Model the fold of this input.
Amino acid sequence: MRLIAKLEIKNKHVVKGINFEGFRKVGDPLDLANQYYKEGIDEIIFVDTVASLYERNHLFELIKDVTKYIFIPITVCGGIRSLKDIETALNSGADKVAVNTAIFNKNFLLAEACKHFGSSTIVSNVEAKEISNNKWEPYKNFGRDKTGWELQDWVKSLQDSGVGEILLTSVDQDGTKKGFDLNLLNKIIHIVNVPLIISGGCGNLKHVEELKNFFFDKEVSIGIASCLHYNLTKIIEIKNILK
Done:
């Protein structure tokens, strides 16, 4: 299991909220990325939290700076609307690009991106909210807008398009530090056949252990933010559990 740091960016600061709302500044993206890199993080995902809302992306220059000193896989997420955006992100130094909002608006974009750049380069960012008992819906625009899709159908559609990896975040658990949403994961565990990154809710080492036991025979990675930003656990402690 890979351990992946999620750095959510707003106005050039790393921020953290609860349920994708109420963001607080927690640090400088270059400083935090370098710190986590030195501490042994496996990958970093940079998420522009308002890029899709304002139809722009401010991460490309940041990625150029990050990749001068950090030599682990880097994923760019937020505001990716075209093949040109993906190309720019990759030319900036990113290894992978995560897409969400645009593929609801342009249903051909995901398949075209996978074909043009290779599936291993394209990640689908899925922001899931529970809308009724044991039923989840993927949202867009950083958890702001409904899509009308049922989560399982959306995951199947993503895989049919050839996506190489899925980043699944529980909006309900995000930032709460109360643990991963195992009910959500149980809903999709049997239909996912690509590498999966689970995010949202990690608050301590017990939560990591629970997730590891839940996915003991699956190719799954963990995306974390609050645990690192607020020094609730050490990267080495988490990685010892994952080993």
